What does this fold into?
Amino acid sequence: MHRRDARNTAQSPYLGSQKGKLKWSYKTGGPITGSPVIGADGTVYVGSKDEKLYALGPDGSLKWTFTTEAEIESTPAVGHDGTVYFGSWDGYLYALNPDGSRKWWTSLGAGIPSSPTIAPDGNIYIGSWDTRIYGLDKDGVIWWSLRTLDHTLSTPCVAPDGTVYCCSQDDSLYAIGPDGQGKWRFRTQYIINSSSVLGKDGTIYVTSEDGNLYAVRPDGNMKWMFQTDLDIDSSPALGNDGTLYFGSGERMVYAVSSDGKEKWKYDIGATVISSPTLGKDGTVYVGAADSVFYAIAPDGQSLKWSYKTGGSFDFSSAAIAEDGTIYVGSTDGKLYAFGD
It folds into this structure.
C-alpha cells in the first residue's frame, strides 16, 4: 500500500540499495506523482497522469496497462488475493484482477487523488475530492462516508481497534469509528496535504503546511508539537524506535524522536514534498524538487548515494523490494529501479 502498511509507517523490512545503480527505467506517457507498490510476485504497479495504471515485471518489462478516463495520482494497494485497488481523477475507485481486467468500479462522487488503505479485515478506506472519507467492503460496496469541510488528498491509516484516521485540507485530522461515526477532529493551523502515521502506542503523528509536526493522543488531544520554519507536505515515516522522518519546505529532512526532540536534520538543498521511505537498516530514501533522489545514512550525517532524474519528485515515495531494488516515480514520467 501507499506508505507500505495500514499504519502508514513507510518502514520496509528489506535492506534497500546501498549503491544506487540504475537497473532500468520505464517511460510512461505522463508525470508520475503517486507511488509505486510491489505485489507478492514482484510485479510493480504505478499510476501516471497519462490516465493509465501500469503493471511492470521486476525486469522493467510491461505486463499490462489499464486506462481510466482521467489522470491517476492515487497510489495503488494490493490485496492478499492480488486484487489491485486505486483511484482516478475520473471519480472512480477501481478494483482490478491480477491480469489487469476490471473486477469492479465504484463512483465516489469526484476525483480521487487519495490512495486506498486496506485494513486487516479487507475493508477499504479512501478520501475523495467530494469532501468525504469513505469506507467500503472488498466488493466495492460503500458502508459509510463522513463529510469533511474540504478536499482530501491524504491516505487514511487504520488502528488495530478499527479506528480510521484521515486528514483533510480543512486543516484537520479526523478520527472515525469502524461504524463511520466521527470520534473527534484535531485542528492544525493550516492545510494538510500529508498522510498521518500511527505509532505502536496509538499516538497519531501528522504534519501540516503550518510548518509543524504534531503528536496527537488517541483521545484527540495534542501530546506535543515540533516546529519548523516553513510548510510541510511530506508525510512522516516512522522507525522501529519511534523516530519520525519527514521533509520540509526549508529544504531539510528531519529526524525527530518520539518525544518531539530533534535528533538530526540533513540539508538537501531543495524543497522536499515527497515522503521518506525507510530501509531495514534505517537508511532514509527520499526525492526532492531538484529532481534528485537521495539515500541518507541512518545517522543523518552523510549521503550514501544520489541520482539525478529528469523531473522533480512531488508526492511519489519509494518502494523497496525483497531483493533491495528501490522503485520510485518522477514527474519526468519515468519509473526508476535502483539496485546494487
User: Anything to note?
Assistant: DSSP finds no helices and 32 strands in the chain.
